[in-house]
């Protein structure tokens, strides 16, 4: 089982390095972001428009429970990947881009 998680089995582009996040980290990050934003979008649509044919369709396409379960699975995968890559990940940038990323992530933590 440990060999299946070994980062040496993956091509370099897939793994994290001290200089950049790999494909796996980026994919898991953006899947999480997409699902969280989808949840927010559906909730906002319900709050703004109430029960309409559009909001009912959105609820059928993106049911809250299914997205929540998928988020849980992806979060667990992210934790396993983070643990596996913990010594190779880049440091937080102190540039404008790094500060904006921290601010956006902080906003999601407080919501």
Report what the structure shows.
This protein has helices at 2-5, 23-49, 53-61, 64-85, 96-110. By secondary structure, the protein is mainly alpha-helical.
List the helices and strands and how they pair.
Layout: H1 2-5, H2 23-49, H3 53-61, H4 64-85, H5 96-110
Helix pairs in contact: 2-4
Mean pLDDT: 85
Largest sheet: none
Radius of gyration equals: 17 Å
- The helicity comes to 55-70%
Query: CA-to-CA gap between the ends?
Result: 37 Å
The total of beta strands comes to 0
How many helices does DSSP assign? Answer: 5
- Indicate the structural class: mainly alpha
- What is the approximate shape? elongated
Work out the strand percent: under 5%
Low-confidence stretches: none
Order of helices and strands: HHHHH
Question: Can you give keywords for this protein?
Answer:
elongated, mainly alpha, 111 residues, 69% helix, 5 helices
What's a concise summary of this model?
By secondary structure, this protein is mainly alpha-helical. It is 69% helix and 0% strand.
């Amino acid at each position: 089982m440990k060999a299946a998680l070994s980062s040496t089995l993956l091509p370099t582009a897939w793994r994290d390095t001290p200089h950049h996040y790999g494909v796996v980290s980026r994919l898991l990050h953006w899947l999480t972001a997409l699902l969280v934003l989808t949840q927010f979008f559906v909730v906002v649509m319900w709050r703004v428009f109430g029960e309409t044919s559009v909001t009912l369709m959105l609820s059928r396409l993106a049911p809250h429970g299914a997205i929540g379960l998928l988020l849980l699975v992806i979060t667990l995968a992210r934790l396993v990947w983070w643990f596996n890559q913990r010594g190779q990940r880049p440091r937080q940038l102190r540039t404008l881009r790094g500060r904006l990323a921290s601010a956006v992530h902080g906003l999601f933590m407080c919501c």
